[in-house]
Amino acid sequence: MNRKHFSLTALLIAAPLALVGCAGASADTTPAPASEQRSSGALDAATVTMIDGWAKSAEEGGMTGVFGTLENSGDEDLVIASVESPAAGLVELHEVLESGTMQEIVGDVTIPADGALELAPGANHIMLMELRHNLLAGEDVDFIVTFTNGGSIEVTVPIKDYSGANEEYGDLAHHDHGDGDHGDHGDHEH
Amino acid sequence: MTVTTVTTVTTNTDSTAAQRQGIGRRALLTGGAAGLGALLGVGGTLGVRAIGEAGAPASPGAAAAAETTPTAGAGAALPGFGSESLPCHGPHQAGIITVPAAHAHYAAYTLRPDTDAAALQRMFRVLTDDVEGLTSGAGPLADPEVELAARPARLTITVGVGPALVDRVGRERPDWLAPLPAFTLDRLDGRHDGGDLLLLVQADDPLPIAHAMRMLNRDLASFAEPLWTQRGFRQARGAEPDGTTMRNLMGQVDGTVNPSPSTDDFDELVWLGSEADWLEGGSAFVLRRIRMELDTWDMVDRPGREETIGRRLSDGSPLSAPADTATEHTAVDFEAKNSLGLSVISTAAHIRRAHSTDPSERIFRQALNYEDVDESGLLFGCYQQNPLTQFVPIQQRLDEADLLNEWVTHVGSAVFAILPGFQYGELLGATLFD
After folding, report:
1. Using alpha carbons only, how large is chain A's radius of gyration in Å?
2. Closest Cα of chain A to B285: distance in Å?
3. Are the C-beta atoms of B86 and B154 separated by less than 8 Å?
4. Measured between CA atoms, how close is B5 to chain A, in angstroms?
5. Do A160 and B139 count as a contact with CB atoms less than 8 A apart?
6. Residues A18-45: b if buried by 16+ CB within 10 A, e if exposed
């Protein structure tokens, strides 16, 4: 991973979210409320940073990928519970199989403690679907990653024109094969 | 159970620090992997410095290297000037007064009809990242060939704008930002004129230039269409002692009289001030494509060639000074007469016609040779505050009378406003949108 973010863009706006609730957070036993943690120096705070984040430009109604490296400098593994974006009706975490077919990742997606999750064309990525407006090169797109421990981060990445990242969808885009159970997609292009 | 996660606000600065650390780690590993080669590289550098300090001439290329930092890409510790990165930030854009690079690529574009001010702001955001990523060696976002960016070899990207772009953002256009007045001997071929946007990409290695142009063209495609490109070259890096004036393809020492950035009046000749509003810190750039008629030049013997210019071919010294003592930088005596009472420097010699007694009629020139399949010549670029009062009077005199005109023809002409420099975290071209 390299440096970098777009000029003039604060890449990651963080929202210390105070959270109540314990769903799926068995690894974490931190008892103190967030405010106290911050005031006490956040000794056990988890810090997630998006490095070199960007999204591929796309048209309203279509879908596109978000790429970059999510770094976790904290000392606890962070499992992604969900990703949301005001620009998309649906957001999924996708992987690309050896066959080149793209599909939603089944199972936990973890950013390891003191580690990173690489998102790249042709590999794991965040998929923004049902886009609510055009994503134009030189603009930004926002999304929110929520972790199973209840924390979340809001990330802003710039949009770039890009010719790659054209993986096929195993369950959506194989209309050329015409065999199927998704015949209603047969006349869709994306 | 209460679960909390505190995330910290990451600012540009923090992010940069983290990245630098990452780069440092990577560079260290690469250096270790490089082993003996890297060690030899370090030893060689130290050796050069030691010799320089002892008074021997500096190794060619040392002046260029002195301006640089190690690439932010992979392999920063590897030897070779490919590792050198020239900082792109500052009060002025890089690539103007920096040590001239061996290779340059000019690319002009026409804006697409729907590229309005908002689209231009997006375009400059993309360009800013490209300039930073390509020149640093880290690679811009979404670079599919980031390895080609890693060894920039002092890559610079200098951006200028033409009149139409200024109109689209609604800024005031200086009167000089327009096609130059026609000169009687111009034979513009229509393929190297004008443009809405100019990129000047320079480096000591053509490979990073090719990569940068590919990246930039990709990113500009939705905003602008290519209009023309012109490639130029000087002597290869290290081929000549630092500071050697280049030779053009006619064999002449070309560019002896040129204001030095270190002189007091350079700023007022070249850099635009606060009166230029959005162009403060920028410059006015003229690019002339000057075709050389080398086939007929071949018919001219050395005395005729030297008389045409007024300087000796051997070292560029003026004909008005004795050959055995004069140097390239000996002052020209335009009044000198020979034993017949004739002017030693011909009345129509190039250096006499180019010379002005008005010190404000000067320009900062950065010329390159070009050689295409069917044409050779000089890409004559010059920076100034106002072409109408600096370049144009000089060219008018040359257009009226210059012995050299027999063998040179101006076939391309363009004027661009070179944007002010920018700092990290700022937008290149920000003042267009204030």
Report:
1. 18
2. 26
3. yes
4. 5
5. no
6. bbeeeeebeebebeeebeebbeeebebb
Mean pLDDT of the B42-48 span: 35
- How are beta strands A125-131 and A110-111 bridged, if at all? unpaired
Token pair listed for B105: 């690529």
Closest CA to A12 of A52, A63, A45, A58: A52
- A77 to chain B, closest Cα gap in Å: 12
Judging contacts by C-beta atoms under 8 Å, the chain B residues touching residue A30 are 2-4
**Cα(A107)–Cα(A90) distance, integer angstroms:** 18
Residue A115, pLDDT above cutoff 90: yes
CA distance B406 to A70: 64
How many C-alpha atoms does B365 have within 13 Å on its Cβ side?
19
Q: How many beta carbons lie within 10 A of that of residue B106, not counting itself?
A: 27
Q: How far is CA A55 from CA A67, A108, A127, B98, in A?
A: 6, 23, 9, 35
Residue A91, CB half-sphere, CA atoms under 13 Å: how many? Answer: 22
Cβ neighbourhood burial of B314 (10 Å; 0-12, 13-18, 19+): exposed
Question: Which residues of chain A have a CB within 8 Å of the CB of B6?
Answer: 16, 34, 37-38, 42, 45-46, 151
Closest CA to B101 of B379, B431, B396, B424: B379
The ipTM (two decimal places) reads: 0.82
pLDDT at A171: 53
A-chain residues within 8 Å CB-CB of B139? 2
Judged by CB atoms closer than 8 Å, whether chains meet at A34 and B6 is answered as yes
**Contact between chains at A7 and B426 (C-beta distance less than 8 A):** yes
pLDDT digits (tens, 9 = 90+) for B63-101: 999 989 999 999 999 999 999 999 999 999 999 999 999
Cβ distance A14 to B10 under 8 Å? yes
- The residue of chain B with its CA nearest to that of A57 is B222
Give the bridge partners for B376, in sequence order.
Answer: B292, B371
Angle ∠(A164,A166,A167) on CA atoms, nearest 5: 130
Q: Quick check: B5 and A3 CB within 8 A?
A: no
Burial B376-397 (b: 16+ CB within 10 A, else e): ebbbbbbbbbbbbebbbebbeb
> Which domains are present in chain B?
10-292+416-432 (3.30.70.1030)
d(CA B39, CA B27): 14
pLDDT at position A65, please? 97
For residue B97, the SS3 value is coil
Q: Is the pTM of this model over 0.90?
A: no
Q: Do B141 and A160 touch (CB under 8 A)?
A: yes
Span of A67-81, A170-184, B254-268, B311-325 with lowest mean pLDDT: A170-184
Reported in sequence order, the residue ranges of B59-111 that DSSP labels E, i.e. its strands, are 69-70, 84-85, 103-111
Helix (H) or strand (E) holding B299: none
- Count H helices, E strands: chain A? 1, 12
Distance CA B429, CA B433 (A): 8
